[in-house]
Write a structure and sequence with these properties.
The protein has 145 residues and is α+β, with helices and mostly antiparallel strands. The chain has one domain. The protein is 34% helix and 23% strand. Strands 1, 2, 3, 4, 5 and 6 form a six-stranded antiparallel sheet that branches. A hairpin with a 4-residue loop joins strand 3 and strand 4. The protein is globular. It starts with a helix and ends in a 5-residue tail after the last helix. Keywords: Signal.
């Protein structure tokens, strides 16, 4: 019986994929993430402080002409962070910066709350713990709240 072409290709493709992955690609444990929280800017390659400055005048994301941080009505951002990530407000810093975090998920999100009831996600990361000073997350986001 002749084996279908797709059935022969699948194992070969999986082997090629496995060989292409770097040997150092390992899963980081929750304990390691909590010991060394990490964060990323909402815009790849941009400093979070520059993203925050830009976000002060951005339109809502559904009205945006190009790539930008996620900006939406404050209630919608809060609903998403609470429902999808189990995050809650942890701390507020100068100029409308708010840290959200989830002990359960180990995630954190830095949000800029604007006076026009719009919120924009500036940075996010992993390694959140209730025992960690909020200042560490503002620093990780480059905002030094």
């Amino acid at each position: 019986m002749k084996m279908p072409q797709m059935t022969r290709i699948a194992p070969t493709a999986l082997l090629a994929l496995a060989l292409a992955l770097p040997a150092s690609a390992a899963i980081t444990s929750r304990e390691d993430n909590l010991a060394a929280p990490r964060g990323w800017s909402a815009m790849a390659g941009m400093d979070p402080h520059a993203v925050a400055e830009m976000a002060r005048s951005l339109p809502l994301s559904d009205q945006a002409a190009g790539d930008q941080p996620w900006c939406d009505h404050r209630a919608e951002v809060e609903r998403t962070l609470t429902h999808d990530f189990g995050e809650e407000k942890i701390a507020t810093a100068a100029q409308g910066m708010v840290l959200w975090g989830s002990e359960l998920m180990g995630t954190w999100t830095m949000v800029l709350d604007r006076a026009d009831a719009t919120s924009c996600v500036i940075a996010s990361g992993i390694g959140y713990s209730d025992g960690t000073s909020p200042q560490e997350f503002f620093t990780k986001a480059g905002l030094n709240g």
